[in-house]
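Sample pair:
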Amino acid sequence: MTSTLRPPPPASPRTPAVASPTPRSPRHGRTWRQALRRDWQLYSLAVLPLLFFLIFRYLPMLGNIIAFRRFKPGGSIFGEYWVGLRYFRMFLSDPTFWEVFTNTLALGALTLLFCFPLPIVLALLLNEVRARRFKRFVQSVSYLPHFLSIVIVAAMVMQLTSIEGTANQIVSLFGGDPVAFLQQPEWFRSIYVSSEVWQTVGWGTILYLAALTTIDEDLYEAARIDGAGRLRQTWHITLPGIRPTMMTLLILNIGSFLAVGFEKILLLYNPLTYPTADVISTYLFRMGFQSSNFSYAAAIGLFEAVIGLILVLSANLISRRTVGTSLW
């Protein structure tokens, strides 16, 4: 008895074949509108910071146009007429500008040389302290100067270095003559950098102490088993562990290399110390507000900003290629 093979019945047009669902990528799971609708409370927290940067950082960039236009007080805020690169040629041929540019480089280099590594050293020393009360005391004492106003710090520096101040009293104890420190150009850089170290080093240790807590303790245990001492553990474990934080802060410090502290220098310097104390920011202040040469000041400020941008990009590129850490 033979059986005939019958083909399967055709699929009904009313019942189309159902394809197996394909998993959606988590990145495309929600649109930005859905994310905004769901987490609008969190996104609303960013409104004020964004407004701050928009109003006080990005909108003022429009004023850079007066570096290429002739600006007159009382006229248009974008200048009266186009002058091209006239003001750039003016400050490039101005000996005073190159003097303040050299002072800015010197103060920026000294500040970076002392204020960048010293927080790392202090954080490493505090990390080795086992007495909690002493550690907290040192942290509190070193953090405190950061919360003082620049005006108060400048007043303290002026009082300490005055003719009858503490510094001259110590000089007199050793038989020396009183020195007017803030009237001597050769003393200004030492005084400024010392005050910066005193005011910023303690606060700078916070990020490094936080980075130290992320290092795995098993690495130290393995190093001790291998016979490594504290110095070798610091060199081979601690410093590589905080290297990303170090490089990030170094890039940020290099970006503000030319933006030496305007407020403190303005409060401490005087015409007698201009040869070593006058920097780009104070020179801009005098050109813009005292001489009312706003276009010339805007050209110098734009030049300083371009140099700072080049420094940041260069430092970020070198850091990414050498140690593999960068901001972007």
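The longest helix spans residues 294-322.
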